[in-house]
Q: What sequence folds into this?
């Protein structure tokens, strides 16, 4: 157990070091995260402006302008946890160029290894991004018109963020592992990104959707990547509903952890049977 | 009585399915719906025993099945048929107990972390292979010293030269003191000095630790310097298995005779003694059948004023190239005869 912990710690430390090699790219990547939200705020400004005004109590699908901006700030935070840039394409590339052999020859588990290196990337990112994030939230404090959540809600929010990270990892890993069957997954990945953008709540609050679409997104796992944590923070999901939703999110995590594990197992079997 | 072999292969075979595409756009479109596959027999029924402490070279033309055999032995791929045992393990079961006891180095693949100093990759290997810290330190010191790379440990791998990188790859592979080492063209693309360094290192290390090494290489110098036993593979089958010098006796029926003639002698007309390879007055190089040497030499000495004679085996490269091309021809003839 201790030995395993040391292995994990070493992997974590080394990937962290690797991440910090390209300082410029790292800094730019961290800051650029804040750019899209500005365009979205302007877009919704225009939407609310056309229906009445941004300061009044006018609502679009139950949201006031301030609610919408608060929602976007929160999804930005959620995506900082659940998005896994380069994970799926990285796995597919390793399969295609044969680097995957490393994980067959050496006594190390590929998915565990990737998970740790991803955690390291995330840790490095949060360390650097914490200050700008806090600054942006401070500047935008006026948009959180319904007040800050209580400690219980914050704890649920934190849990929702952790679940979104795990779900994002296993979902994307599964897509990358399709590379065992179809060497090239970039188109598939594009479709996944597009669907995620719409159906995770990254583009608009999912409860704005009319029936039957709202029912559809409710049963998909994608909403736990962005919409769910934000909704928890904004107090839209409470009590038993909250507990139930957290359980469903956790179940999806387990499902995709198993899916990715099975895919890896089958994929390696196929790889060693045909290719290599 | 149990066999002493550390590596045992019995009827090992591996076929790949390869997608066949005819030329042109139309065929590409057709390929979207229906694909034709062809089975390629990369390895067909190899039997081989390697004893503990042997250094064996796999030779063969490209696509002969050398790398496939190494991949089978390191568990990267499963065989289509046959059996293999390495130190009692079935490689493609990929048990950790096995994976901690061998290493695979591919000259064309990089296992180190590209952006980090090699030291970090070594540290990771220490953890992955659970190497005791004291032992790790001692092994690393020994290896870096032998390969003369102490000063390069802190430099990012991407900034190392190919030769330096290969040395680091070898260190990474040997840190856990494997009992069996598979080397797939470890000196590919290296300059003569770097090649020589790596040969010297491998030779020393193998003799000291008595580990078992299987090596594939295209450089005869590697093979000549390192391996007493040579296995020649072509079309996925073993064509020769024995000593390096034995190749000469078996596959080369010729010797190369170099004549240093008197300055005044004419250098033409030697065709009647054998195949003239090179004429550089006053030097003539001939290829003469082994059995005919005494008779032909006597005739030459009788008819010409010769200063000096050297009778040598042809270079190993040539013999092996000839061997490969013979195999190729046979294959073509068989294909032409419709016999497959």
A:
């Amino acid at each position: 157990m201790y030995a395993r912990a040391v292995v994990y710690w070493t992997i974590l430390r080394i990937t962290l070091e690797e991440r910090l090699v390209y300082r410029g790219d790292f800094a730019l990547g961290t800051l650029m995260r804040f750019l899209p939200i500005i365009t979205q705020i302007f877009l919704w400004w225009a939407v609310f402006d056309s229906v009445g005004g941004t300061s009044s109590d006018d609502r679009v699908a139950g949201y006031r302008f301030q609610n919408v901006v608060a929602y976007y700030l929160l999804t930005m935070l959620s995506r900082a946890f659940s998005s896994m840039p380069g994970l799926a394409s990285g796995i597919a590339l390793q399969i295609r160029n044969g680097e995957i052999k490393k994980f067959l020859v050496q006594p190390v588990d590929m998915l565990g290894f990737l998970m740790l290196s991803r955690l390291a990337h995330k840790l490095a990112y949060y360390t650097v991004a914490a200050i700008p994030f806090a600054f942006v939230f401070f500047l935008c404090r006026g948009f959180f018109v319904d007040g800050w959540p209580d400690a219980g809600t914050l704890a649920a929010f934190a849990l929702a963020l952790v679940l979104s990270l795990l779900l994002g990892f296993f979902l994307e890993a599964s897509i990358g592992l399709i590379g065992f069957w179809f060497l090239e997954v970039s188109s598939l990945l594009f479709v996944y990104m597009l669907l995620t953008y719409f159906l995770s709540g990254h583009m608009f609050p999912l409860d704005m959707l009319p029936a039957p679409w709202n029912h559809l997104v409710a049963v998909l796992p994608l909403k736990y990547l962005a919409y769910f944590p934000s909704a928890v923070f904004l107090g839209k999901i409470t009590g038993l509903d909250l507990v139930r939703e957290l359980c469903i999110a956790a179940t999806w995590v387990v499902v995709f952890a198993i899916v990715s594990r099975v895919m890896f197992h089958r994929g390696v079997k196929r790889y060693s049977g045909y290719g290599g | 009585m149990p066999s002493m072999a550390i590596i045992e292969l019995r009827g090992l075979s591996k076929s790949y399915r390869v997608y066949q595409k005819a030329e042109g756009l139309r065929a590409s479109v057709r390929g979207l719906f229906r694909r034709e596959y062809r089975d390629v027999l990369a390895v067909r029924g190899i039997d081989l025993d390697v004893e503990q402490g042997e250094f064996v070279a796999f030779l063969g033309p490209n696509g002969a099945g050398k790398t496939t055999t190494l991949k089978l032995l390191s568990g990267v791929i499963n065989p289509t048929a046959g059996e293999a045992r390495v130190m009692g393990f079935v490689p493609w079961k990929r048990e950790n107990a096995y994976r901690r006891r061998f290493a695979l180095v591919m000259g064309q693949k990089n296992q180190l972390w590209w952006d980090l100093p090699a030291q970090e990759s070594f540290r990771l290997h220490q953890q992955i292979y659970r190497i005791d810290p004291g032992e790790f330190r001692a092994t690393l010191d020994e290896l870096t010293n032998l390969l003369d790379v102490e000063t390069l440990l802190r430099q990012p791998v991407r900034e190392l030269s190919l030769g330096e990188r290969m040395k680091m790859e070898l260190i990474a592979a040997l840190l856990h003191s494997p009992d069996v080492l598979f080397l797939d063209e470890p000196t590919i693309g290296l300059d003569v000095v770097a090649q020589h360094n790596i040969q010297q290192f491998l030779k020393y290390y193998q003799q000291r630790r008595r580990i078992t090494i299987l090596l594939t290489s295209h450089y005869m110098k590697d093979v000549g310097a390192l391996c007493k036993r040579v296995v020649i593979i072509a079309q996925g089958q073993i064509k020769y298995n024995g000593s390096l010098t034995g190749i000469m006796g078996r596959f080369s029926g010729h010797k190369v005779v170099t004549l240093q003639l008197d300055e005044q002698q004419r250098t033409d007309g030697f065709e009647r003694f054998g195949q003239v390879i090179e004429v550089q007055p006053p030097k003539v190089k001939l290829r003469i059948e082994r059995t005919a040497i005494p008779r032909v030499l006597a005739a030459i000495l009788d008819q010409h004023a010769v200063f000096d004679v050297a009778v040598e085996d042809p270079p190993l490269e040539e013999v092996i190239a000839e061997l490969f091309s013979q195999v190729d021809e046979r294959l073509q003839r068989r294909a032409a005869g419709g016999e497959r």
Summary: The interface with chain B takes residues 3, 6-7, 10-11, 14, 17-18, 21-22, 98-99, 101-102, 104-108, 269, 271-276 of chain A (CB under 8 Å).
